Amino acid sequence: MDSGWRDAWVLREDGLAALVRELAGDGRRVIGPTVRDGAIVLAEIDDAVQLPQGWGVELAAGRYRLVRREDAMVFAHSAGPQSWKAYLHPQRVRRWTADRDRDGEWTVQGEDESGADAAPAYAFLGVRPCDLRAIGVQGRVLGGGPGADTAYRRRLERAFIVAVECTDPGATCFCTSMGSGPAVAAEDRGYDLAMTELLDEGGHRFLVRAGSAAGAEMLARLPVEPAAPATESAAQRAVADAAERMGRSMPPVDLHALMAGSLAAKRWDNVAGRCLTCGNCTMVCPTCFCTTTEDVTDLTGDHTERWQRWDSCFDLDFSRLHGGPVRASGRSRYRQWLTHKLGTWHDQFGESGCVGCGRCIVWCPVGIDITEEAWALAEETGQPESTGSAEPGEPVRRASREGGGQR
Predict the structure, then answer these.
(1) Within this chain, do residues 45 and 84 fall inside the same structural domain, yes or no?
(2) One domain, residues 238 and 281
(3) Which domain holds residue 334?
(4) What are the E-state strand segments in 169-264?
(5) pTM as predicted
């Protein structure tokens, strides 16, 4: 076959199984969606039969339900409770160990995952466009600059990414508002293969194209067939239809300006009366990156370890300085999270920290909806609607407020 990067090919169900075998045969740990404990979760797989064929989800604010579909679609489900940061930016990482010998001398051993052989070689199968954007966003935060996390950068460099475009958005999805889906955007270059799943009179198949030399090389090893124009058109229609059925949307305003101009809004009191400051939204968010360190020792005091673990700006200790926490109220902590995610992230990193995956809505115990809060702030402050093409900090205006799902 001609392995041109931009050519589109068709992969049948046996080809999907071959893809998993080839990735695993290359010595990669294949991570994909699978059904476990009443949810679609990410886990290591070694066979395509472990993928959630025939399963979907029902989503609402504070609600997640696994449901049987009437068809055999494999990727027709929305983002689950995990994101790919669990593998690229693990929840707990040991940084060093220290041991004291009989003479009282200490030996300190650092943990180094930055080497070519130390970092795991992952293959991520089923990365949604919103999560693909999130990987890029977090990669620029953790993988660049003078304080770059070299272990993170190495994990990302070694990962083989198979993105899957969305054709069945959930009621809490709003990626269209954020310009991060449901199609794989032209500016999202971090994938090796991109697929669109189709199930119609033409059969169950995947339109697939390469996004890198490694992706093109992988396609050359798979049982693919040239994509007919009708198949490409069907894939485009399916993704375009998904954009029209998006379950949520952000207000059509400059979100960066909205956050900067609403610091004194009364709405923060409203949300503070509901928020439990549990930090669930930060734990499930695919771009939140904050960490802290903790030291642990054994009972003898001769062995100690330092661990890095995820932290949350909702934690009282997160902003603690001498004398107490800087943000002692739930109001101030929620405001910090939202204004950073939608506003000052632009000042720090030149883009939004939100990709519209909707996880924070689903996994909030009291169903706080980030899009509802943004709409309320826009209405209270009288933020004007944006016009023309989207500028930095401005959402793409392609979804109605009501969207196609529940509100």
Answers:
(1) yes
(2) no
(3) 255-381
(4) 193-200, 203-210, 224-226
(5) 0.89
